[in-house]
Amino acid sequence: MSTQTYEAETFRKLQPQEYLRKFLLKEVRPDGRELKQFRQTTVNLGCISTTNGSSLVRIGNTTVVCGIKAEVSVPKQTSTKEGYLVPNVELSPMCSPKFKPGPPSEHAQVLSENINRLLKSASILDLNTLCIHEGSAVWVLYADIVCVNYDGNVFDACVIGLITALSNVKLPKATFAEEEGLVKATEELLIPLNLSRLPYPATFSIFDGQYLLVDPTEVEESVAHEVITIICDEAGQICTVWKVGGISCTPKHLEKCISIARERYIEIAAIVENEEKSNNLI
Amino acid sequence: MSRHEPIGPQGLRQDGRRADQLRNINCKPSVLSQSDGSSYIEQGYTKCLAAVYGPRETRQKAQILHNKALITVEISLAPFSMSERKKRKKFDKRLLEIASAVKQTFEPIIMTNLFPRSQIDIFLQILQYDGGMTQICINAATLALIDAGIPMLEYVCACSAGIVEDTTILDLNNSEESLGIPELTVALLPQSQKVTLLQLETRLHVDKLESVTAMAIKGAKEVYKKLDKTSRDYIGDLLQKSNPT
To answer: Which residues form the Exoribonuclease phosphorolytic domain (chain A) (predicted)?
Structure first.
């Protein structure tokens, strides 16, 4: 018995692609999931009390913490009423042996930029609502997403973390005293943000041009390079389609992905709603 | 009671603790799947994650030590962990100094001579900060190293203590630290009763040093009890799971 497991382990290390293929022939994944099954997802809101809004998201072993801090700043000359929302993703060397200490890796910057683009193009938050006083003071929301454990599909975890943390944000009531040129804010945090839509993502990998792997783990990501991410909102509208690597994706695959992404939306929305309910009870 | 009095008339501190009371410690080993060993520790509102990788191949050839393992420690502070968001540079000098203190604390304890030419990395991530950076980093690293199965001579447990007028107080939080109370951090080897680290950065009368050190050592022993219980419970659980009969 023990020699057999040893052999499987050696096989996995030497022939990772063949190893995965053997599983997929039987319509099952190495971690025991079905092909179109997501890993267990949990959301924990308001876990960091130094922030204005925070959330911890786990998809399987992948864990990210998103914290949002609000600060006052001066608006741009060209858009005097608009505040700022600055997302930033950190992939520290702690979360995987792949990452080295040093400046943010290309991967982390790609994630940050994708999230930034999603925020802008889907106009999730109307930046004009962050205005305290036109031309002199606006809120800046710094959304820092720290990846703690990297086991694949970090982009999904980051987006869910960001959206749930944004819906968890409470800002103080702020007024601008014109004579002194100062912003005064109340101690209590009361005002929630007004989010125009709550998009949630679903990510897929295509392996061997035929197997569609939902919610890939780190091991699966490293052998299947073709990745599709679809983000849709509560109305089932698509906010983003992002497909990179490989050439085997057909329109049929894409259709299937979209329908799974819509089902996934309902699943995540239910998880978040549950967490919000239990959070309000406390 | 004034907001700035560290100890109120009933002898209670701002957060309701007695002078010689530790903050509530909550800890858990083996929380991350990617690292060889990890831990999460909460001491009051200070929350810290530790991950240990190694012993593994040294990344930079020039750093190879031929007779023992190289230890590296990196501390990162999540940008949202403090009440003021400061985009601290990764190589903030203060953090570097604490990281170096943690590294020097563990160098004599880890049996590095067993792993020549290799490297052991300790990564610490502060998620929320409310005082006691050095102590929580050391405690989290101890638990993560145990989880990684890296041979050590014994536990290292750290605790801080300070003094207000004539009362020594244990385990300062951020608001007490910012009042300028002298703070002394001690890292103790609880079995051999040796001290591997003792850090004091503020002015303190030499007569008071002994009582403050004694208080910190007392705290470190309590931390040891907690860490030891946690890791024993965890190992017990593992044993039970691997052999259910």
So the answer is: 37-172, 201-263
Interface residues of A toward B, Cβ cutoff 8 Å, are: 48-51, 54, 61, 63, 65, 67-69, 71, 88, 90, 92-97, 100-103, 142, 144, 146, 148-151, 218
Q: Specify if A18 maps to a domain.
A: no
| A112 in Cβ contact with A137 (< 8 Å) | no
Residue A220: pLDDT over 80: yes
The answer, yes or no, to whether residue A4 has pLDDT greater than 60, is: no
CA B172, B175, B176, B179 torsion-angle sign: positive
- Spatial separation of the C-alpha atoms in residues B121 and A105, rounded to whole Å: 19
Start-to-end C-alpha separation, chain B: 58
CATH number at residue A82: 3.30.230.70
Q: Which of A1-5, A201-205, A224-228, B38-42 has the lowest mean pLDDT?
A: A1-5
Name the residue type at position A250.
T
Residue from A31, A52, A148 to probe the interface with B (highest B Cβ count within 10 Å): A148
Q: Which two tokens stand for residue A208?
A: 């061997």
- Residue A221 is assigned to a structural domain of this protein: yes
Q: Could you give the CA distance from residue A214 to residue A31 in angstroms, rounded to a whole number?
A: 13
d(CA B110, CA B156): 10
Q: Is the dihedral of CA B199, B65, B190, B159 positive or negative?
A: positive
Domains for chain B: give ranges and CATH numbers: 25-240 (3.30.230.70)
Measured distance CA(B116)–CA(B112) in Å, rounded: 7
Domain ranges, residue A220: 33-278
d(CA A70, CA A7): 53
- Residue A11 located in a structural domain: no
Q: Which residues of A touch B79 (CB under 8 A)?
A: 67, 69, 88, 142, 144
Q: Does residue A1 surpass a pLDDT of 60?
A: no
Give ∠ CA B6-B9-B12 in degrees, rounded to 5.
55
CA geometry: angle at A31 spanning A24 and A218, to 5°?
Answer: 90
Asked if residue A21 belongs to a domain, the reply is: no
Please give the model's pTM, rounded to 2 decimal places.
0.91
B 124-143 residues inside an 8 A Cβ radius of A = 124-125, 127-130
Q: Which tokens is B149 given?
A: 């199965």
